[in-house]
Amino acid sequence: MSRQIRFNAFDMNCVGHQSPGLWAHPRDKSWKYKDLDYWQDLARTLERGIFDGVFIADVIGYYDVYKGSNYHAIEQAAQIPVNDPLQLAAPIALATEHLGIGITASTSFEHPYTFARRLSTADHHTKGRVGWNIVTSYLESGAKNIGQGGLRRHDNRYEVAAEYVEVLYKLFEGSWEEGAVQRDRDRRIFTDPSKVHEIGHKGKYFEVPGYHLSEPSPQRTPVLYQAGASGPGKTFAAGHAECIFVAAPTKSVLKHYVADIRERIAAAGRDPKKVFIYTLITIITDETEEKAQKKFEDYKSYVSYDGSLTFMSGWSGIDFGQYAPTDVVERIETNAIHSFVEHIAGGDKSWTIDELAQFGGIGGMGPVFVGSTERIADILQEWVEDTDVDGFNIAYAVTPDSFEDIVGHIVPELQKRGVYPTAYKPGTLREKLFGDGPYLPVSHPANGFRDIEAVKRREAEAGDASLPLKSVGA
């Protein structure tokens, strides 16, 4: 096997990210999520392990579906309290040289104009190591608390997201031309006004007539992550994402997903091998099988049954607290994460409520791999070979121990086998991942917003869909 296996660390600016109850383990330090030194120490560990990046999840809202209350979410710190992920980009960048920093932000809760400036700022501060995980959100509580009354319907959220990213592409790619910023002291010209353009966007959901507030960042558009797994989600990911995350509980589910999404990417006119797919897993390892199993049993003793079902209910939109532990999970149409219900209720295994709670107690909806260094390395190679997945989005059981075990045990073994990177490529995050330039490739839909005259012609032909781009000096 010559293909390189890729790692991302999956974390969140909170306690109890994917393993509810394990915050109580004496070695867990997720309670230090408020401290920048915790994040900087973790980032240095990940960079030592040549991880592609740290992917910081986020939710706006809280989990209140289980038993119709947020009681267990609050009691078990199930992603509450939670802090803003974007503010971690700068301190992580200061502590590292290469590690990518993936930030989750929803298209449902923040206007694209203000978000564009925040994202460009982060890309400047990190020298081009930021990625944006595009989500549409799934918690009704979040929408209610910002005055929306409730979430839009699932498919409609992706319609909004499509226009949202179009606005960002116009701001990032089309508003400021290359060479607009001149910093010419002799002529007293910092920016050439004729090279800065209003984007003139007037769509169904957003109206943004003016200019991007930030000068172009090292990547212009940060690396685009997405976790689309429903039908509309996969269509969106195939058209826009450069890195795709999936939570597949079994190898067969993952294999089907990877084949499907690569076909969709090709149909969208993009190179399916230039889009990396990472699947969610948790690794519990040690020098021997016996030590690894003992560690796993120790971790399981801290799992919160109610905390696990709090997550499962929130992700699915189904209150699993109303069923008996022996009841079988059935497909119910909800407005939450459609792929969750499809994988659990429509997959190749029947799940009881109790099995679901036990499965999700460590690592959320990804499988948990337990074993010695050699055994885990074998499993990872087997999954890559059998499913065509590019890498793994690794959640922790106990932090930072889970990541330190991987960097100390698994990474050296994979490197010895020649299937894991031994050094980072130079440049921005996009260059490190794909080896090309810092900007999105010409096959990406964002490329259509770089040529100002071409954009003007296309939008004029489209009629009233949006206003024509206009330069400052026009």
Describe the overall structure:
The chain is built from 16 helices and 15 strands. The chain is an alpha/beta fold and 474 residues long. Strands 1-2-3-4-10-11-12-14 form an 8-stranded parallel barrel, surrounded by 7 helices. Strands 5-6 form a two-stranded antiparallel ribbon. The longest helix is centred in the middle third of the chain and has 21 residues, at 154-174. The chain is globular and about 70 Å long. The protein starts with 5 loop residues before the first strand and ends with a strand.
Summarize model confidence as the mean pLDDT: 89
Tally of individual helices: 16
- Main sheet properties: 8 strands, parallel, barrel
Which runs of at least 5 residues are low in confidence (pLDDT < 50)?
A: 334-339, 464-474
Distance between the termini: 57 Å
> Going across the major beta sheet, what is the strand order?
1-2-3-4-10-11-12-14
Structural class: alpha/beta
Helix content: 25-40%
Radius of gyration: 22 Å
Strand content: 5-15%
Dominant shape = globular
The total of beta strands comes to 15
Salient structural properties:
single chain; 474 residues; alpha/beta; eight-stranded parallel beta barrel; two-stranded antiparallel sheet; 16 helices; disordered C terminus
